[in-house]
């Protein structure tokens, strides 16, 4: 038997933990729909902002906070939930995260003022922080590297644009025919479906995780968690609020929050590097070859994502005059592109060099905002918006798929950490760069709304260009091929000797 063929066959088999195809489909359905719900609560909120501002009497200077509070709390707490996954298993964290998100989605629909809405959105962000990190852990630990894992992660990544479109669709429907509150209530109903499916098909890994960690004594780094969370909140608050502070960056509370936040993050670095026995962000993560430039490139790419999503929606509504349901129709190619790419991704990720795919996605992220930046007055949907939508789905789908596969494969025994890092970079990138995008819009608002939006798109083009430079100059990711994992002796169809031969073939 040819060793590479045997390893490839291992990578195509259904994992032994799934007794039937139906159990695997049910498991994947819950994880995939949780990804959809995370994107649902990011994208759709942008469409209902005009109705919120009018109904809750929210001043224009404060509209960014209900949008960014969700991403900020999610990104700041993902590492904490990632450690809880490694300590208690993914099932408990995943289920409780869905339940938490469901609860605060219901409450958010009853918001009576700006403070209550921001409070609910901030608390709602802890839900995706829990179920996204644990969801990737559950997927990464269930599938060995190979075509089947590539396909599953491609579908998972393809759920991002589907979730984005779902949020746009429900919010557009609510804004035009119902009430903005139904956006949250329908989201709660959809989240309950994902939770019910998880309780039926996702196996509890609490006992197995505890047994696996019996010798390692996995502990929560509470001091590091407190420093990281509070430091990120303070810094990101300063970044997001400086555009509308009385004196910008010179405003006293902005400076105090930023300086104090940087000091606390410095303390977090000291705790993680020299004090904590089991740091939330271990140094081993950054010793993985090419991990540091790769994460930095992802940070810029996801920053472009957040900026592009919000300001594309605002540009379409305020400049192009799109109605809520018309905006839904315009974003259809974004969702369809995600479906097509998820279907194709599982068949090409193990055939095509990863760096080539990343550069393609990076160039797509440059073109997505560039098309809006150069669009002339009265530009048609077909000439500029449609190509931008196609580039947008190329950017997020390819980037997210490769990031998840690369990081979970490089950290095979730390899937909770891997899932937390993947999504933390996403949410923090969205929140951080959105703050500077808002500052760009505020600094150029005297030129008129259209030119102000275009300035933001040029800012996004610059961020995307930095990401492409990092990928071309410092990142080299091979194709996602099949590999043998520990424990494959029990799951492979061949003998133990075949597994040893496969390992020898890899070496």
UniProtKB/TrEMBL annotation:
Residues 19-479 form the Major facilitator superfamily (MFS) profile domain. Keywords: Membrane, Transmembrane, Transmembrane helix. Residues 485-507 are annotated as: Disordered. Gene3D superfamilies: MFS general substrate transporter like domains (1.20.1250.20), Multidrug resistance protein D (1.20.1720.10). InterPro entries: MFS, MFS_dom, MFS_trans_sf. It holds the Pfam family MFS_1. It is a multi-pass membrane protein. The chain crosses the membrane at residues 21-42, 62-81, 88-110, 116-139, 151-170, 182-202, 222-239, 251-273, 294-315, 327-349, 356-375, 381-403, 415-436, 456-475. It is found in: Membrane. One of its GO terms (cellular component) is membrane. PROSITE patterns: MFS (PS50850). GO terms for molecular function: transmembrane transporter activity. This is MFS general substrate transporter. It comes from Karstenula rhodostoma CBS 690.94. The lineage of its organism: Eukaryota, Fungi, Dikarya, Ascomycota, Pezizomycotina.
């Amino acid at each position: 038997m040819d060793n590479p063929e045997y390893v490839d066959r291992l990578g195509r088999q259904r994992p032994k933990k799934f007794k039937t195809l139906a159990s695997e489909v049910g498991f994947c359905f819950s994880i995939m729909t949780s990804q959809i719900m995370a994107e649902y609560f990011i994208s759709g909120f942008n469409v209902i902002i005009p109705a919120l501002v009018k109904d809750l009497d929210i001043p224009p200077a404060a509209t960014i906070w209900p949008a960014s509070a969700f991403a900020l709390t999610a990104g700041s707490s993902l590492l904490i939930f990632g450690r809880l996954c490694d300590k208690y298993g993914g099932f408990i964290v995943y289920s409780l995260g869905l339940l938490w998100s469901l609860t605060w989605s219901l409450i958010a629909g009853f918001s009576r003022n700006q403070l209550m809405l921001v409070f609910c959105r901030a608390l709602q962000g802890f839900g995706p922080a829990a179920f996204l990190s644990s969801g990737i852990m559950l997927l990464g630990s269930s599938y060995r590297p190979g075509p089947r894992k590539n396909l599953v992660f491609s579908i998972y990544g393809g759920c991002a644009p589907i979730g984005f479109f779902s949020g746009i669709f429900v919010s557009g429907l609510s804004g035009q025919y119902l009430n903005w509150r139904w956006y949250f209530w329908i989201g709660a109903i959809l989240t309950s479906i994902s939770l019910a499916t998880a309780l039926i098909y996702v196996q509890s890994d609490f006992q197995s995780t505890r047994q696996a960690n019996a010798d390692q004594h996995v502990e929560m780094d509470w001091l590091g968690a407190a420093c990281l969370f509070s430091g990120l909140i303070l810094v990101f608050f300063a970044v997001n609020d400086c555009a509308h502070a009385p004196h910008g960056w010179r405003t006293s509370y902005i400076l105090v929050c930023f300086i104090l936040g940087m000091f606390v993050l410095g303390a977090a670095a000291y705790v993680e590097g020299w004090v904590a026995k089991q740091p939330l962000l271990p140094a081993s993560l950054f010793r993985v070859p090419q991990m540091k430039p790769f994460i930095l490139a992802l940070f810029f790419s996801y920053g472009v994502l957040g900026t592009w999503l919000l300001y594309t929606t605002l540009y379409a509504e305020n400049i192009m005059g799109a109605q809520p349901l018309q905006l839904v129709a315009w974003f259809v190619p974004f969702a369809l592109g995600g479906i097509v790419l998820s279907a194709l991704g599982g068949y090409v990720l193990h055939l095509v060099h990863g760096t080539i795919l990343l550069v393609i996605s990076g160039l797509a992220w440059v073109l997505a905002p560039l098309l809006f930046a150069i669009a002339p007055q009265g530009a048609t949907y077909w000439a500029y918006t449609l190509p931008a939508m196609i580039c947008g789905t190329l950017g997020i789908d390819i980037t997210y798929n490769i990031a998840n596969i690369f990081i979970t494969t490089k950290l095979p025994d730390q899937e909770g950490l891997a899932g937390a890092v993947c999504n933390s970079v996403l949410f923090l990138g969205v929140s951080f760069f959105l703050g500077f995008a808002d500052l760009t819009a505020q600094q150029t608002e005297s030129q008129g709304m259209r030119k102000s939006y275009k300035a933001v798109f040029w800012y996004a083009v610059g961020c995307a260009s930095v990401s492409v430079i990092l990928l071309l100059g410092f990142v080299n990711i091979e194709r996602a091929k099949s590999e043998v994992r520990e424990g494959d002796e029990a799951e492979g169809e061949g003998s133990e000797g075949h597994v040893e031969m496969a390992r020898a073939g890899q070496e």
